[in-house]
Amino acid sequence: MFIKKLKSIIYQNIIPILIFLVIIMIGLSFIHTQMIRRQQILVSNTNALMAIRLEQVLISSKKIGIDLSDKLALPCNDIRSILQQEVAISPNVRSLNLVHHNKIYCSSIFDIDKIPETDPIPNTDHPLYLTKATILTKDSPLVNYQYTINHHQILTVFDGRNLMNFLRPEDPDLKFTLYIGKNRINEQGMFNATTHPALYYTSTHHSEYYPFKITMGVINPITPSYFLRKNSTSVILLLLFALCAGWISRIIITNLYSPSSELKRAIAQEEFIPYVQPIFCAQDNRLIGIEVLARWQHPREGLIAPDLFIPLAESTGLIKEITKSLMKQTSVALQAYRFTLPDNFHVGFNISAKQGEDFGLIQDCKDFKASLKPAKILFVVELTERELLEQNEKTKELFRQLHQLNLKVALDDFGIGNSSLSYLHDLKIDYLKIDKSFVAKIQNNALSKQILDSIIELAQKIGLESVAEGVENEAQADYLKSKGVNFLQGYLYSKPVPIGTFLKSKQFTDILKFEP
């Protein structure tokens, strides 16, 4: 029993906790995987969008040169104001410059006579290149885009920091670096920075039209705090779902392993088997019938005594199904003897107070008697006194119909239970069964002996036959016989045995009309 209780505790408590934890682990793993996937998609899509934006900036700047193509041959003094106007309406352009022999000869920034002497513009096959900051640009690197329109070279210069601010994504966790040729500029506008933060879930996008690439990643790894911050709603919903699943599983497991569920399982598996105890005539020791008793043949616990399950079966109403099962099994066992059983062979079944209000009992009794025809079975309904039977019109009608079927009614355990003397009249009792506790004290308890005598005298005065239970020795049997008890039952004659064992016993075969 200890092991069984321990298993019940494990099943009812540990398994729901395990279910909760498994759901949490699987859920968090799924959310984490989805978060990584979302981060990867976000980085890739944002990187591609950023590259497109930069390409659009470069295309727009070249369009300026195309629009100025018919004016590029003009002297610098005539075109310089036009260049300045174009720069003023182009937010990302720092300066527009005209180039000849790799030298700037006209600029939107400087007057013609004030163009500073600078290093020659690189002679490169790539129209796009990156140069470091100058004094004039206040430490901001320059993104240079050089192209030719009508044999005129145009150099568009972008402020690196302004351009990076323009390209910067809205998500502050995304960091990127623009690579142009062998040089690079990060999102802060730093030229060839020697240190840069570690990035996660990085993506590199190469432009199909211009010689640049952008590398982007997430600056924050998925730490527990970052994970919770980004997925707080999902985690809360997961916790609620896991709690509900754990609680529901506990309810289900509790029901599965509850005593009532175990009784239902045992009924379905026909684990309740009929044991019988013979009843003998007190005058000639002749076998006159049997009382059918329930025993639980549990697959793990073995044979379970009725005191351990009958009260629960009665309180849950499952006693009806147990009784019906016992009737069916007893009927099947007696089938082979229906032609040889002596007339008025007693077969008694215990019923509870709840069954005393159930008209389904009438049909069960009919079916039992019909299954054993042509044997003239004397069916005895033994009303137990563990619960008080409410006496109302419904109850009286049920017992009236039982008598119409020529059934007998016995009041079991008389003297110790919940019955009242009104049972004897209202329910038309046929037998009083004297409880074994009185029989056991015949020889050593004067008070119990007097109560026993009173019960026997009561039965005789109102015309009821009496059955003494628990007869264990000859002295008890002799005393009961001397007092006029009609029938005896107890270990002196036989202990309760499986019905199959009883049917093979000499006690039974001796009363048969002839061998079956």
Give an overview in words.
With 516 residues, this protein is an alpha/beta fold. The protein folds into 2 domains: 2-218, no CATH class; 272-504, TIM Barrel (Alpha-Beta Barrel), CATH 3.20.20. The chain has 16 helices and 19 strands. The chain has helices at residues 2-67, 76-88, 160-167, 224-230, 232-256, 259-268, 310-316, 319-334, 360-371, 393-404, 422-426, 436-440, 446-461, 474-482, 499-503, 506-509, and strands at residues 93-100, 103-107, 128-131, 142-149, 152-159, 174-180, 183-186, 200-206, 212-218, 272-281, 287-298, 302-304, 345-351, 377-383, 408-414, 431-434, 465-468, 487-488, 497-498. It has an 8-stranded mixed beta barrel with strand order 10-11-13-14-15-16-17-18. Helix 1 (2-67) runs antiparallel to helix 5 (232-256). The longest helix is centred in the N-terminal third of the chain and has 66 residues, at 2-67. It is rod-shaped, with a radius of gyration of 51 Å.
Features of the shown structure:
516 residues; alpha/beta; TIM Barrel; 5-stranded antiparallel beta sheet; 16 helices; 22% strand; rod-shaped
Note poorly predicted spans: none
So, CATH architecture of the largest domain?
A: Alpha-Beta Barrel
Separate helix tally:
16
CATH class of the largest domain: Alpha Beta
Q: CATH homologous superfamily of the largest domain?
A: EAL domain
Write down the CATH topology of the largest domain: TIM Barrel
